[in-house]
Amino acid sequence: MKYPEWTKPGVYGALVGAAAISILGFTWGGWTTAGSADEMAQNLAAEEVTLAMVPVCLNLSEADAERTAKLAILQDAKSFQRRKAMMETGWATLPGTDTPSRSLADACLAGLKLDGS
After folding, report:
1. Residue from 51, 50, 113, 48 nearest 82 by CA
2. Does residue 98 surpass a pLDDT of 80?
3. CB contact at 8 A, 87 and 100
4. Any idea where the domains of the chain sit in the sequence?
5. Mean pLDDT for the chain overall
6. pLDDT, tens only, 37-86
7. Quick one: pLDDT at residue 116?
8. For site-directed labelling of 76, which of 12, 17, 24, 53 has its Cα 20 to 30 A away?
9. Is residue 26 a contact partner of residue 35, using CB atoms and an 8 Å limit?
10. Would the CA dihedral through 7, 11, 14, 17 be positive or negative?
11. CA distance 115 to 65
12. Are 107 and 57 in contact (CB under 8 A)?
């Protein structure tokens, strides 16, 4: 069987074009794979849960009998030590868990609006 002359360049052009479209789509076009879309969804969900828990953290801080002493410790801590100090207060522990959340500690510190933060 004899193929027309344009067959070989046409097939190569189609392959190169498909590769180019794929590369452009995934880099600049905003295309994502199922794995990266799932990862983005998980990250967004975790951020939203943290934001939803900030009022709980602030309410725990207001209800704490040792609030004044703990706030003094937080204010005296250097900026890079504040997250650890916040986690030690117990205010950044999500209900139903035993360990404090680092992201909730950061968000709660921002919600407390300590001087010098």
Report:
1. 113
2. yes
3. yes
4. 46-112
5. 91
6. 999 999 999 999 999 999 999 999 999 999 999 999 999 999 889 999 99
7. 53
8. 53
9. no
10. negative
11. 21
12. yes
Q: How far apart are CA 52 and CA 20, in angstroms?
A: 43
76 CB-near residues (< 8 Å, 6+ apart): none
Residues 6+ apart with CB under 8 A from 99: 93
Question: Which SS3 state, helix, strand or coil, does residue 77 take?
Answer: coil
Residue at 114: amino acid letter: L
Structure tokens at 45: 């969900």
Q: Please answer whether residues 75 and 53 qualify as being in contact, where contact means their C-beta atoms are separated by less than 8 angstroms.
A: no
Q: Is there a contact between 91 and 64 (Cβ–Cβ < 8 Å)?
A: yes
Question: Amino acid identity, residue 76?
Answer: D
Q: Mean pLDDT over residues 85-108, rounded?
A: 91
Q: Where are the alpha helices (DSSP H) in the chain?
A: 7-27, 34-63, 67-76, 82-89, 102-112
